[in-house]
Each structure stands twice: as structure tokens, then as C-alpha cells.
Amino acid sequence: MKLVVRVKLLPTPVQAAALEATLHACNEAATWAASVVFEKEARRVLELRKHAYAEIRARWGLGAQAAQHAIKKTCDAYTTLKANVRAGRYGRPGSRRHIRASGKPVVFRPQAAQPYDDRMLSWQHQARTVSIWTTAGRLKGVAFTGQAEQLAVLAAHRKGESDLLFRDGKWFLIATCDIDEAAPNTHPAGFLGVDLGMVNIAATSDGERHCGRRINRKREQDRKLRGKLQKKSTKSARRRAKRHAGKEARRAKDINHKISKGIVAEAERTGRGIALETLTGIRERARLRRPQRVKIHSWPFAQLGSFIVYKAKRAGVPVVYVDSAYTSQECSKCHHAARGNRPSQAVFSCRVCGFVDHADRNASHNIAHRGWYVWVCGAQSTAPELTLIA
Ligand SMILES: [Zn+2]
Questions:
Q1: Distance 52 CA to ligand 1 centre (A)
Q2: How far is ligand 1, taken at its centre, from the CA of residue 365, in Å?
Q3: Same domain assignment for residues 99 and 163
Q4: How far away, in angstroms, is 360 Cα from ligand 1 center?
Q5: Domain containing 100: what range?
Q6: Domain edge (last residue) among 155, 178, 201
Q7: Ligand 1 centroid, distance to 362 Cα (angstroms)
Q8: 3 falls within a domain
Q9: CA of 361 to the centre of ligand 1 (A)
Q10: Which residue, 32, 82, 77, is CA-closest to 52?
Q11: Do 36 and 136 belong together in one domain?
């Protein structure tokens, strides 16, 4: 399984200047190579290499690997563009968007990401530094930092290329890790249903509810502060808003890591699979009062889902996705579904059999049932193949 880990570089001002000059040189060279592709129709790496390699090395001072990567990056960009044009993402041929997209060469931003292979970048995990090639020579001892869990994954499983990236005034390396998967559990003893929602971010069919009021209250405060800062249009307010948004995202990610870890560990311990609802369901159910809608849209449920999927995959726990229609209105005992079964947001009370439960737990039982059904019907794990950012 491929997993992408992002670490933040902490370069000194001198190192940062060298990194910046390098990124600019690589992207200028790639932009020039893109014009060569456009003129000479040399879309294949080998062809473009013939036309551009020597000049890139001479004019921008790129090393052999960097030049090769700039060429490959250019060809990849055209492949992606071609696929997008073909898929109709720029409208019909002849339309203004279509012409704008395919009528001129690709241009790379000066700070676009640049791939690095093991000959251009080496990692010293103990010292938490990297040694990295730049146009000003090799920089040694560039410090990096990241979350403990990610750094452990990185040290144990990093393999292949990494991307150097400059975003919002900060330097990052995006490293690919290749993680072993446990043998999949092909005979799960049932499914653990997970109901994602606004009052409880995740409720399992075991009755465990993850976070709720406290996080929502904090998020509500965050939202208000963000609104206030957005209204002020001063530079410092904008900067503060941005910093604040970053902090909020990191906190949400932390919580998602914790929740997903708990859910996967529980499923693994009890030999079960995990049933998740498709994400469209949450949005549909969010046809509620406006404040709640804001909450639901702002929680990164897709991220939580992807964390559950990759942790499950690593542990060999099967994951199935189930149709989420009416999971909150259906009785998990007699399967009678009606809107009237929900006297309030928190309570489920069946009109037919009289079963009463916490609403989220009832919903998660339905999801667990449906997960089992999907599994028994022979639909294998429908979890998408994915590369994710931890
Ligand atoms: Zn019932």
C-alpha cells in the first residue's frame, strides 16, 4: 500500500535561498522544455530528452537527475492535459476554454513541486535532517519535522521519489512510503458499523461515540473567529485567519487519526470488518438547520474515511461501503423505516415495534447490517485504491 507522508523542512535562510533558486531553475527549465514539446511535438520522454537534455543542463545548471526529472515532469504534464482534454474537462473542441488549454504550451509555476530521487535526496532519520541537491551544491543537515506517527512511518517505509514543495511560505517534502499490508481477514465475524454525523463525528455499533459536543463547541468558536477575521481585510487579519485555518486543520486531522485508530483496533481485536456509509449520505442528512449544516460541511469526513481505510488495510481488516439512505430512520430491530421514528435528533423510537435507542447507535447498527449483507452478497471490499496524505 502506498502512503504519502508530508514533512516540513526547517531550512536556515541561506538554505532556503538555495532551495528557492533550485525550484525556480527546475520549473523554468520545465517550462522551456514544455515549449519544445509544443513546437516539436516531442511528447515522449526519450524524444524530448534528445531535444532538451543538454540545454537544460547547460542553461539552468541542473544535475543529470534533476534535468531528467524536469523532462519527465513536462511529459507527465502533457499526458495529464491530454487526458483531461479527451475527457471533455475543457469543453468542446473550438470552445474558448479548449483553445486556451490546448492551444499553447504548458507553463509551470516558479514554485511548482519538483521530484527528487534517492540520488538527489537522502534522509537521516535519527538526526531528522536531509541532504538535498540544489543548484548551489548539495545542502547537508537541512532539518525537518512532522508528527511523531508520520515520522515513524517515514523512517520504516519510505521508498522511491519525494517531491519538494513550497507552499504558504513554508518548505515541505512529500515522501512516498510503501507499507506492508497484513493478510486480509477473509472471514470476518460480522461488521462494525460506523455512523458519521454532526453531533457525534463517529458512532460505532458497539455504542462507542467519538467526540461531539466539546469539538463542535470549539469549531463553532473557530468559525466565528474566522468570520470576524474575514470581515477585516487588513493584512495582519488575513495572515491570522490563514494561520488559524492551518491550526484548525491540524487539530481536525489529529482527531481523525485518533478516531480511525480506535475504530480499526476494535474491529481487528474482535475479528470483524468495518462498514462505512458512502459520504453522500452525510450531506443528504445535513438538510437541517443552517448552523448544523455548516458544521457538517466543515468536518473533514472524507479524510476520516480515508484514514480508516488505510489503517484497516494495513491491519488486514476488510472495509465495505454501504448505501446510506435512511440509515437514520430505519429500525435496526424490525427494519421499519419512517421519518416518524425520529422524535428528536438524539433519539430513535420505532413506531412499529417500540424499539428505543440512541439515534446514532441505531444508525450504526443499520450500517453494520448492511455491511454484512454487502459482504455476504459477494461484493468484495469496495474501498477505493488510494494514495493518501497522512
Ligand atoms: Zn422497529
A1: 71
A2: 13
A3: no
A4: 15
A5: 16-114
A6: 178
A7: 10
A8: no
A9: 14
A10: 32
A11: no
The closest alpha carbon to 202, from 215, 190, 211, belongs to: 211
348 CA to middle of ligand 1, Å? 10
Q: How far is the CA of 358 from the centre of ligand 1 (A)?
A: 13
Of 114, 135, 159, the domain-final residue: 114
Is residue 255 a part of any domain in this protein?
yes
Ligand 1 centroid–CA 337 distance in Å is 8
- Distance from the alpha carbon of residue 328 to the mean position of ligand 1, in angstroms: 12
Instruction: Report pLDDT for 243.
Output: 80
Expressed in angstroms and rounded, the spacing between residue 363 Cα and the centre of ligand 1 is 12
Average pLDDT per run of 10 along the chain, which is 390 residues long? 89 96 96 92 88 94 94 93 88 85 89 94 96 95 89 90 92 91 89 85 83 69 77 79 80 88 94 86 50 56 89 92 86 93 91 93 92 75 48
How many A from CA of 352 to the centre of ligand 1? 5
Angle, in degrees to the nearest 10, between helices 213-231 and 290-298: 90
In total, the chain counts a number of residues equal to 390
Ligand 1 geometric centre to CA of 213 (Å): 28
The per-residue pLDDT for 295 is 47
Are 195 and 203 within 8 A, CB to CB? yes
CB contact at 8 A, 82 and 91: no
One domain, residues 314 and 216: yes
Q: Are residues 173 and 244 in the same domain?
A: no
Tell me the C-alpha to C-alpha distance, in Å, between residue 335 and each of 76, 239, 325, 346: 51, 52, 13, 19
SS3 content of the chain, % helix, strand, coil (to 5): 50, 20, 30
Ligand 1 centroid to 271 CA: how many Å?
A: 28
